[in-house]
């Protein structure tokens, strides 16, 4: 069973709009929560990551919000652009996992012009 | 830096044939991961290595799959015999620390 549950499965947003992707987890031992971005025909690439001692992290138009008590975290893409059209994966990692990442199922984001 | 290199990029084979996928991690990266990606199952971790030693192969679907890392700059994932349900994109990723993983471009495998 997936240890990280991601929603929605797909998302269509207009250019300039906000894309929001949500993830939930159960394992309270997780201490690292990255988001990966994957373009068609490419491998996933790290976009932004957060640790549970921080409630929010922002890099450019991308923001992670983290709610430790609810065991949820989300990715917000502000001012979405057509170039942001990709599949986004949330993930989580425990400190004793030798680098093993638990990936969510992925969200396909399409930004229309 | 060239990044993670995978070969071949595309492989088409017939059921029952042996398939070998290759990966060259980024120099200096001690961790290497093999993933399989399908529409139905998403990204699945198959096996990972630390300093060329397999740490966890619990994700390998069955005995037809095997992986080796004979040295720090080369790893293989072998499927023998291949089946149509093995059709997927296979990714190799490496990292110097157990945090950010750097993915290769993937090998698209089609088993007819």
How would you describe this protein?
- The complex is a heterodimer of chains A (113) and B (112).
- With 113 residues, chain A is an all-beta fold.
- Chain A is built from no helices and eleven strands.
- Chain A has strands at 4-7, 10-14, 19-25, 33-38, 45-50, 56-59, 62-67, 72-77, 86-92, 102-103, 107-112.
- In chain A, the strands form two sheets. In chain A, strands 2, 4, 5, 9, 10 and 11 form a six-stranded mixed β-sheet that branches.
- The mean pLDDT of chain A is 94.
- Chain B has 112 residues and is an all-beta fold.
- Helices cover 0% and strands 55% of the residues of chain B.
- Chain B contains no helices and eleven strands.
- Largest interface, with Cβ-Cβ < 8 Å? A-B, 20 and 23 residues
Shape by Cα distribution of chain A: globular
Distance between the termini of chain B: 36 Å
What string, H for helix and E for strand, traces the elements of chain A in order?
EEEEEEEEEEE
SSE string of chain B? EEEEEEEEEEE
> From the alpha-carbon coordinates, what is the Rg of chain B to the nearest angstrom?
13 Å
> Helical content of chain A, roughly?
under 10%
- Structural class of chain A comes to mainly beta
């Amino acid at each position: 069973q997936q240890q990280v549950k991601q929603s929605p499965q797909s998302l269509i947003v207009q250019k300039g709009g906000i894309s929001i992707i949500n993830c939930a987890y159960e394992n309270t031992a997780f201490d690292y929560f990255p988001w990966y971005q994957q373009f068609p025909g490419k491998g996933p690439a790290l976009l932004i990551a957060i640790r549970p001692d921080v409630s929010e992290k922002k890099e450019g138009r991308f923001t992670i919000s983290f709610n430790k008590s609810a065991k949820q975290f989300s990715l917000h893409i502000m001012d979405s652009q057509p170039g942001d059209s990709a599949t986004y994966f949330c993930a989580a990692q425990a400190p004793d996992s030798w680098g093993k990442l638990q990936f969510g199922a992925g969200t396909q984001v399409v930004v229309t012009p | 830096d060239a990044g993670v290199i995978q070969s071949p990029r595309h492989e088409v084979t017939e059921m029952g044939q042996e398939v070998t996928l290759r990966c060259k991690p980024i120099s200096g990266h001690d961790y290497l991961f093999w993933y399989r990606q399908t529409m139905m199952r998403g990204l699945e971790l198959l096996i990972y290595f630390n300093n060329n030693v397999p740490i966890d192969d619990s994700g390998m679907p069955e005995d037809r799959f095997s992986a080796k890392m004979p040295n720090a700059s080369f790893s293989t994932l072998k499927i023998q015999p291949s089946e149509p349900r093995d059709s997927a994109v296979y990714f190799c990723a490496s990292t110097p620390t157990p945090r950010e993983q750097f993915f290769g471009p993937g090998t698209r495998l089609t088993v007819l």
